[in-house]
What does this fold into?
Amino acid sequence: MRIARIAISVLVLTGRCIASPDAQIIGPAHRIDLSGHGEFKNIFEAGLQPKRFDDNLGICIVKRVVINFDLGGSNTIIIPADECYFKVLEDYSLYTIEANTVPLTLEEARRWMLPICRTFGTPDRELDNFLDRVGKGKIEQFGWLGAGETDGFVVGMPRQPQNSDLAAMGARLRSVSGDKVHPVEIVADVTWERATWKLAGRPPKLTPPKGYEQFSMEPVREVPEWIRTGAEAPNFVKALNTPEQIQAMRDEYYRTQGRAAAPTNNNAPPATVGLNRVNLIASSPFSLKWALLLLAPVFFLAGVWVMAKRR
It folds into this structure.
């Protein structure tokens, strides 16, 4: 389970190269019925259309939608998910789900977390005390893997017995670096205790389940705002790409729009970039590939650590 969380955390961090243009995610909540075995098709039955995110890891994603994770009984979590990652096993059963909101103000975080706290029997005052500490700057880094999770704010169910095929769910607050106005985000997760032999299988290249073949799972490339508008590339992009590579990105976009090439924009005013609220890409279309290659040793060492613990 820890390896899956590490993998999804890495993908979340990599995906932060693309940030949401707006905090507001509206619309009816899509209820994912997870009271049964927890199947890949449950995502489609909820009216969602996930896209493949990484074929080698069996992960798909949905973005910017309100989701109701329903394990049955009174175990439900509802959040406006900016991104929601689903880890799928070889037999198309779900293994983990992790969804995060956009960065929130303390009041927004309280409004969404209060019903979750009440679901799992956590007193309102514990949430209020934690948010008060965050607002006063007494706690800054929390909720990230390896960042002292015990110091954060976590609610949810206890872990289910190993090999039981049962799921547990929970939610936590996670810090947002460098944003005093929107210092937290909510992360909801669901994890199944699958049999070891299922975890050893090769992740599938995900295709829509029977009855939903008309839906495409091909990733939809997001075009950053600075390319669409012809603004100057953010400094983060310039640090990772040559001027020729940046111009090539512009040219590729303009070709898809039926234009010959993008105009150079050396005299454009500096772009005002809010990394948490503006849609931008940090590097070339191959940045994810290179990020995963650079992070491969992390996965390897984590695997060695898990095997050593099992012995």
Remarks:
- The beta strands are 30-33, 51-54, 59-70, 76-88, 94-100, 154-156, 167-175, 184-192.
- The chain has two domains: 2-199, 225-284.
